[in-house]
Amino acid sequence: MTQVEDTSRDMRLDPESFAQGYFKNAVYRHWDPYEIEGLEEDKEKFLEYEPTESEMEESRMAVARFGAGEEAVTEDLMPLAMVLSDINDQMFISSQIYEEAKHTQFFDRYWREVFNPVAEELGLEVTQPTDQRYFNDDYIAVFDKTEDAMNRLLEEDTPENRVRAYCHYHLGVESVLAQTGYYGITSAFSDKGSDEIALGDWPDSNGLVNGIAKIRSDEGRHVGFGMQKVRGYVQSGEVDESVVQDVLMDLMPHIAGTVSDFEENVNPVPLVEYARDKLMRRIDIITEEDAEIPGVEELVKLDDGESSATAD
Fold this sequence. Notes:
One of its GO terms (molecular function) is oxidoreductase activity. The chain is an all-alpha fold. It contains eleven helices and no strands. The longest helix has 36 residues, at 87-122. The chain starts with 17 loop residues before the first helix and ends in a 13-residue tail after the last helix.
């Protein structure tokens, strides 16, 4: 096989590309899931609070969905990594896959170090984060559709199929569903977020919220990368904006369904409203000619005046 020489530029990397900018940000913002503090404190608070079986079950359901989601998207990114040809894009996606794996590790660690010891000591049922009771039909549909959109790239790598893949993964899952989930957990288990969302007297969970803050700082880059890619295809005329709207509007009922079956710790009504607002704003940024994609810090704000997770 004859190797084709690349003479399109003097150096392999383009420091001015947004992909390299995001990669540099990923290196600078690196964190270790094994060093997140506060998990032991969370365990002691939960033991003192003595949650009911239903309170404990709903808290585990939220973390199980995050953990399974992070595990799924770690795998689902592989087809996109295989079809990208630009080294700058490849480097960023490589960092994203690594970060999704870190997120998976954090939620697994939380289950092992907090939920299981608490359940054992209080005499509650000890469960596994893979238990199918934690995943409703809408949750499953979101990730099945995302997996299908990504795998389609291996069969037919077209601009439209790439936009569909980015819309499912970077916009639907990461920008709308995940951000809504972060908002819900932060509101319910800390003094940040929205008072309308928190129900009951569940104690502040600093370890969980600390981990989520780090995860959100990564997701800002992931969302920004996907939005840049989709906006480029739409604004160039390669892909019609209706493709973006069709994908996201198809996902919205499933996203709403995923956050609607909480009743002990979280009020789902403002969460659904938050998700719809987030989705419409993403569509506007991508389709409006004069719109600009927010910076990484802006993309991970909780929209309540809180400082962003990536701010120093």
